Amino acid sequence: MRSQAERIVDTPAGFAVFSDTYRHSYDHNKFVVTHADDLRNVSDTAERLLAAEGCMHRSIVVHDERPGDLLAPQLLDTGHLHERDVLMRHDGQAADRPADTAVTVDEIALDELRDSDRDTWQTRLPQASAEVIEQLVDRRVTRLRAAPQVTFLGVRDENDRVVAHADLYLDAAAGIAQIEDVQTRPAHQGRGLARAVLDTALRRARHAGCDLVFLEASADDWPRRFYARLGFREIAVAHLFTRLPA
Questions:
Q1: How sure is the predictor about 101, in pLDDT bands with cuts at 50, 70 and 90?
Q2: Hey, what domains does the chain have and what are their CATH numbers?
Q3: How far apart are CA 60 and CA 100, in angstroms?
Q4: Residue 97 pLDDT more than 70?
Q5: The pTM is what?
Q6: Nearest to 195 by CA among 234, 223, 235, 233
C-alpha cells in the first residue's frame, strides 16, 4: 500500500495513503490501522485525514482480527460497510489435482490487461461514470512498484485475448511472494485456467526461493474454498470498512 502511494501520512494509530492521480480509487486513498489501543481515536483519525484530503468515501483497513471486530460496531453505526478477507498461506504441498499441462501460461504485458480490467469494473460498478472506470483501469500501473519483481501471468485464447490472469509479487531477498487478482473471464470459467495460472505462480515463487507464498480472499466468496484445495491455509483475517459517497 505504501509503495503505491503518492503521499503517506503516518499517525500513532496507523497510516493513510493518498493519490491525486487516482482520486476515485479507494485502494489508493484509505487509512490502514496498525495500532488499535484507542479504537475511538482510530475512527476519528481516519475520518479527519480522509475528510481533509477531500475524499467523498471512507475506506479503513484493519489487518488484525480482534481490533477489527471491536472497531466494527462504531463504524457500522456511522454507515460503513464491513467485509472480511482471509489471508491464506500456501503449505508448500502439491494441489489435490495437478493443473492442466495443455494450458499455456505466459507473462502478460500491462496493456494487455486493460480490456479485462475495464470489463470487470463495468460489471462491478454498472452506475460508475466512464471517468471512474478508466481511472480504475489506469491505476494498475502502480502495482509495478508493489514489490522488487512484479509479473502479470495469464492465459490467452485462440484470438490472443487474455481470458485468465493473476499478479505475482516477488521479494526474493525476503523470501516472500504474494499472488493476487486471480481472475477468469466468465465465458472461460470451469476450464482449469485459474488453476494453471496459480500453479505457474507457485512454481515461480518457489524457484525464486520464496518460502512464504500468500494471497488474500474474500471470507464470503467461493474462491476461498478453491484456494484451500490448492494448498492454501488460512492464517489471519483482515477487516475492510467502506462508506460510500452520499
A1: low
A2: 7-87 (no CATH), 106-230 (3.40.630.30)
A3: 39
A4: no
A5: 0.91
A6: 223
